[in-house]
Amino acid sequence: MYIKNRQELTSHGHKREREAALDIIESALQAVDPYRATRELVHLDGRLLSVGQLRFDLSQRGNIYVFGMGKATFAIAKALEEILSERIAGGIIIVKRGQAGSLRRIKVREASHPLPDRYGWRAARELMAMAQSTKKGDIVFCTITGGSSALAPFPAPGISLGDKRGVTELLLRSGATIREINAVRKHLSNIKGGRMALAIFPAEIINLTVSDVTEDPLDYITGPTVPDTSSFADAISVLERYNLMGRVPIAVRNHLQTATPDLETPKDFTGLPIHTFVLVESASICEAAADKAEALGLGSMILSTSLEAESREVGSLFAGIAKEIQRYRRPIRPPCAVVAGGETTVVVRGKPGYGGPNQEFVVGAAVKLGENDRVVIAAIDSDGTDGPTSIAGGIVDSSTVTRAGEQGHDIYAHLISHDTSSILQKLNDAIVTGHTGTNVNDLKLMLVS
Predict the structure, then answer these.
(1) pLDDT value at residue 328
(2) pTM of the predicted structure, to 2 decimals
């Protein structure tokens, strides 16, 4: 079971609907397990290695390595080690602090997320040194998943780790989307934007990835090992769009504005030995949630798998849709489940409290629900850590605001100050899973009776 505090979450409010919502979340997380997906894709029969439709006679090949970084990477590496065992010559993966497990053939390094730290920097240098040691005939599995940009910082010459950290923090607080953020970070890096692949060639690359970005663009989910579609001009445009160009460190501004064409990220790997498999697509969690809702006897609809907007506003929108369903029985008839995914953002002004976009989403929804609304709304980050917190997300209903008032809490003040973790914890409405081992779309879920 993923949800560790189920009993407290179902001890109040609309208990039956809360139980159903948590059942749906559990089932959806099980469906996006990258360990299982890797075991289904990769097989070893004697000296014959199969990866999907690819076939490799290992008696004719060199070493096998496993390199990776990200919040869903450990599960993939664990599956590969179980399948290939002693055939793995070596490897290194970088995971979020607190997520590390034990592997025999692959080194596991921990680092900070969402802001990079010196441990990630050291691990990234170690990884790149190993990547550069590979040779023609070697097979390199690259298990790069969501979170890799922060976990493996390797700044370009002239840019310090502190510069990179500062830019990341500004972008995260600005409301920029993950694509916009990564367009900047790729152009401040010696490892991102396809540069790790350049270090590995002419060895053969097999990318095994899990998508946490809407529409599954490869250069934003396994960016270090595929060609890049963004440019220095795109990076500058993002900073200007959010009025950040004058606030970033001067070394960053100079690097972006004076870059020559030879510093641009690679745009084409045609003819080079590279294969990419998306083990779990970003929308899979929404599809699995809708399937489970149907199995529970609820009507279901996927509203969107591409949400990108201010979290509290999307939460308010969900509450409005709930009212439409209850009053007019549209766009779907109750009892029903409405599912959505994507990656909503939070624009932080001033000194923030403690919270994350999914927690802000549910609190934003809760303040719009009326006492008579038979509605439960939940949201989680699929990796189990919403924003910089150790909380996966939250679940609310029409009792949430009432209970807050009865306990003497101003839920509106918590929302305005982006301090959503503390209020959800006080109300026993914070969902706790710990690290789930996967990282796809955030999941938004609404049940209407």
Answers:
(1) 97
(2) 0.94
φ, ψ at 350 (rounded to 5°): 80, -165
Q: 413: how many CB neighbours lie within 10 A of its CB?
A: 11
Neighbours of 426 (CB within 10 A): 16
Sheet architecture: strand order including 42-45: 42-45, 48-51, 54-57
d(Cα 97, Cα 113) in Å, to the nearest integer?
8
Q: Please spell the DSSP secondary structure of 78-144, one letter per residue.
A: HHHHHHHGGGEEEEEEEEETT-----SSSEEEEE-SSS--HHHHHHHHHHHHHHHT--TT-EEEEEE
Cα-Cα-Cα-Cα torsion 428, 433, 438, 441, nearest 10 degrees, comes to -10
Specify whether the CB–CB gap between 449 and 372 falls below 8 A: no
- The one-letter amino acid code at 193 reads G
- Which pLDDT score is estimated for 353? 81
291 secondary structure, DSSP code: H
The CA R_g of the chain, rounded to the nearest whole Å, is 22
Residue 225's CB: how many other CB atoms inside 10 A? 30
Secondary structure percentages of the chain, helix, strand, coil, to 5? 40, 20, 40
Looking from the CA of 16 toward its CB, the CA atoms found within 13 Å total 6
pLDDT digits (tens, 9 = 90+) for 65-79: 999 999 999 999 999
Taking the C-alpha atoms of residue 359 and residue 393, their distance in angstroms, rounded to an integer, is 5
Residue 101 has what pLDDT? 84
Cα–Cα dist 328/338, whole Å: 15
DSSP state of 195: H
Q: Please tell me the total number of residues recorded for the chain in this structure.
A: 449
In angstroms, the CA 161 to CA 168 distance is 11
User: Hey, is 214 helix, strand or coil?
Assistant: coil
Nearest-angstrom CA–CA distance, 250 and 333: 56
For residue 81, give the nearest of 132, 114, 38, 129 by alpha carbon: 38
Omega before residue 114 within 30° of 0, cis:
yes
Domains and CATH numbers, the chain: 6-31+283-448 (3.40.1480.10), 34-154+189-230+265-280 (3.40.50.10180)
